[in-house]
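Need residues for this backbone.
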C-alpha cells in the first residue's frame, strides 16, 4: 500500500508585505527583488495570535475538511518545520491536541525546505510497512522570526505560512519517492540555536539569525534538483514529459525556470506562486499543492512530481498519481 493524497489545506498570515514596504526597512528595491527572484510580495505574521501552531492547525483543519476525514481517524501526524514555537513539545503534538486527534502518533521533522517531502516519504514508508493508514502532514514556517531584518540578502526572500495534506493508505497514489542529504554543505544555509549558558560555560547570549550564501545555494539547487528529478523518473521508468505538473519548492523563479529549461519542458507544467508567497520553506510545496487543487487545475489520474531542496543540505522528490 502507498500514500495517496486525499485532501489539501493551507493558511497564510493576514499581512501582505510588498517589496516597496521592505525598501523602507533595508536598502533594496522592487526592481532588484523581482528581477533576481520573481517575488513581488509575501505574507508575514503580524499579531501574537498568528503563530507556527495556529497556522499549522488552520491548514490541518482545512485539509481534513477537504478530505472528509475526522481528526480521530488520524493515526499519524507529521509536521515539517524549523521554526516551532516551542523546542518541546513538538508542533505535531500541539496540533494533535488542538485538533483532538487522540488516536494519532505525532512528531516533527527538520529537513528545512525539503521537510514536507521528507515527511511525505516517511508517511509512505509507514504505509508500505502497514503500520499506519491515515496521516496528516503539515509543512509550516514562521521564518520571519529567524531572519535578521537588517540583512537585505535574506530578509526579502522569505514568507510565513502553512500547507497540509491528508494521506490515506491506498493501492494507488505514490509511485516513487527519494530523499538525500549532504551535511558537508551545511554551512551555506545555517541558523544556530541558542548558545550555552549553564553555570560552567558561557558562550554568549546573542541570538543567532539565518545566514545564507545565496549564490552557493543557487548553484546547489540548479544542479541537484534536476538530478533528483531524473533519478526519480528513472526509478519509475518515466520520462520528463510524462509528468502533468511539476510542483517545485518555491524559492526563486529563476531556479524554477532553469529546471524547466534543463528538463526541456514548457513553464506551463510548473505552476508557481513564489511571486505572492515568497519562500515559505517547508510550507512552500503543500501551499502550492493546495492552491492548484482548489483552483481546479488537477484532474484525477494526473501525474505530479513534487521536488525541493534546502538547508542541511537536503533534497527530496515524490512522484504520485492524483
Ligand atoms: O529555500 C532556501 C533556498 N534559498 C535559495 O534558494 C536562495 C538561492 N539563491 C538565490 O536565490 C540568489 O542567490 C539570491 C536571490 C539570494 C541573490 O541573487 P544573486 O543574483 O545571487 O545576487 P548576489 O548575491 O550575487 O548579489 C548581487 C548584488 C550584491 O551587490 P554587489 O556586491 O554586486 O555590489 C549584493 O550586495 O546584489 C546585492 N544585493 C541586494 N541588492 C538589493 C543582495 N541582496 C540585495 C537586495 N536588494 N535585497
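Answer:
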Amino acid at each position: 500500500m502507498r500514500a495517496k493524497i486525499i485532501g489539501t489545506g493551507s493558511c497564510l498570515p493576514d499581512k501582505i508585505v510588498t517589496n516597496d514596504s521592505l525598501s523602507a526597512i533595508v536598502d533594496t528595491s522592487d526592481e532588484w527583488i523581482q528581477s533576481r527572484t520573481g517575488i513581488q510580495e509575501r505574507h508575514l505574521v503580524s499579531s501574537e495570535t498568528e503563530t507556527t501552531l495556529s497556522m499549522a492547525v488552520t491548514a490541518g483543519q482545512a485539509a481534513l475538511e477537504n478530505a472528509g476525514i475526522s481528526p480521530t481517524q488520524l493515526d499519524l501526524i507529521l509536521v515539517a518545520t524549523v521554526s516551532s514555537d516551542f523546542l518541546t513539545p513538538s508542533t505535531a503534538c500541539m496540533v494533535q491536541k488542538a485538533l483532538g486527534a487522540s488516536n494519532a502518533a505525532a512528531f516533527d521533522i527538520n529537513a528545512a525546505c525539503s521537510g514536507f517531502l521528507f515527511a511525505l516519504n516517511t508517511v509512505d514508508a509507514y504505509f508500505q510497512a502497514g503500520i499506519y493508514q491515515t496521516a496528516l502532514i503539515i509543512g509550516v514556517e514562521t521564518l520571519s522570526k529567524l531572519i535578521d531584518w537588517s540583512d537585505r540578502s535574506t530578509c526579502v526572500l522569505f514568507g510565513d505560512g502553512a500547507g497540509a495534506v491528508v494521506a490515506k493508505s491506498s493501492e494507488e497514489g505514490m509511485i516513487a519517492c527519494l530523499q538525500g542529504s549532504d551535511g558537508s554543505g551545511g554551512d551555506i544555509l545555517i541558523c544556530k540555536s541558542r548558545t550555552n549558558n549553564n553555570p560552567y560555560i558561557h558562550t554568549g547570549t546573542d541570538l543567532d539569525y539565518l545566514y545564507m550564501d545565496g549564490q552557493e545555494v543557487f548553484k546547489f539547487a540548479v544542479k541537484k534538483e534536476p538530478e533528483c528529478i531524473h533519478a526519480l523518473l528513472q526509478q519509475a521508468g518515466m520520462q520528463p514529459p510524462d509528468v502533468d505538473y511539476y510542483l517545485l519548492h518555491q524559492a526563486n523563479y529563476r531556479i524554477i525556470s532553469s529546471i524547466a529549461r534543463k528538463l526541456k519542458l514548457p513553464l506551463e507544467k510548473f505552476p508557481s506562486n513564489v511571486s505572492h508567497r515568497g519562500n515559505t520553506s517547508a510550507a512552500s510545496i503543500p501551499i502550492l499543492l493546495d492552491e492548484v487543487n482548489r483552483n481546479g487545475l488537477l484532474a484525477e489520474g494526473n501525474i505530479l512530481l513534487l521536488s525541493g531542496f534546502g538547508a542541511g543540505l537536503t533534497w527530496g522528490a515524490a512522484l504520485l498519481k492524483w
